[in-house]
Design goal:
The protein is an alpha+beta fold. The protein has two domains: 85 residues, 2-Layer Sandwich (Pseudouridine synthase), CATH 3.30.2350.10; 140 residues, Pseudouridine synthase. Helices cover 24% and strands 30% of the residues. The strands form two sheets. Strands 1, 2, 3, 4, 5, 6, 9, 10, 11 and 12 form a ten-stranded mixed β-sheet that branches. Strand 1 and strand 2 form a beta hairpin. It is globular, with a radius of gyration of 18 Å. The two termini are 32 Å apart.
């Protein structure tokens, strides 16, 4: 049953670490208990009603990878303090359209909600936005597509997606920050279609939280999630595997 719910990377008395798939929202939806990660967590802990799982970090529905879950309030508080103190490093891999002109760089640009956007959650670089900083490094490229390692220094909404789009390297498959944000609105109405496939190439944004490192007073943690099958297949098709 666990395999149907999620892939477990590690579990202790305090924490559950999982590898989220790229088609699962964290918070409840109108679907059944399998339609959200929190619903699946409640199923997993159904025989342990004393456990109240809570997210320490979150990922967008279409972003796969490492998610850290606290099993009790004390664990959540302790881990949240480490996040807030800067003792946590988040590492992503991203497949983007285009090739950067340098081997690595830092995007230091404030982010805020895009004025007038029909997509209410869409973020953009704004002078009056919240300070946001993202480090990136080129791993591979065929000129048309590139594989990047990305390390966000801050944790803003859609930060990696908005920042990479800002420098002209949008994520492959990104419905909001890719070729046209109206594709996101179309997708909500129609679902995945042949038209969307022609524009976006793949059903979800090619972003994966591949590792999370955390350091406490007396302990260090390091969790890794292997690159998912769909991203691996795309890289193979592009000669980037």
């Amino acid at each position: 049953m666990t395999e149907k719910l999620f892939q477990i990377l590690e579990e202790s008395d305090d924490l559950l670490v999982i590898n989220k798939t790229g088609d699962l929202v964290c918070h409840p939806t109108k679907g059944d208990e399998y339609s959200s990660l929190i619903g699946r967590l409640r199923l997993y802990f159904a025989s342990q009603p004393e456990i109240k799982p809570s997210f320490i970090n979150r990922l967008d529905r279409e972003t796969s990878g490492v998610i850290l879950i606290a099993k009790h309030p004390g664990a959540h508080t302790d881990a949240q303090r480490l996040f807030e103190s800067g003792a946590v490093e988040k590492i992503y891999v991203a497949i983007v359209k285009g090739k950067p002109v340098t081997e690595e760089g830092v995007i230091d640009a404030p982010l805020g909600r895009e004025p007038g956007s029909q997509v209410l959650v869409k973020q953009t670089v704004l002078a009056e936005g919240t300070p946001s900083r993202t480090h990136w490094k080129l791993l591979k490229s065929n000129g048309k597509f590139s594989l990047l390692e990305v390390r966000p220094e801050t944790g803003r909404l859609h930060q990696i997606r908005a920042h990479l789009s800002f420098i002209g390297l949008p994520l492959v498959g990104d419905k909001i920050y890719g070729p046209d944000p109206s594709l996101f609105l179309e997708f909500i109405v129609t679902g995945w279609t042949a038209k969307l496939k022609r524009r976006l190439l793949v059903p979800r944004q090619m972003l994966h939280a591949s590792a999370l490192k955390m350091s406490g007073l007396e302990k260090k943690w390091h969790w890794e999630a292997p690159i998912p099958e769909d991203m691996g297949l795309f890289l193979e098709e592009q000669g980037l595997s």
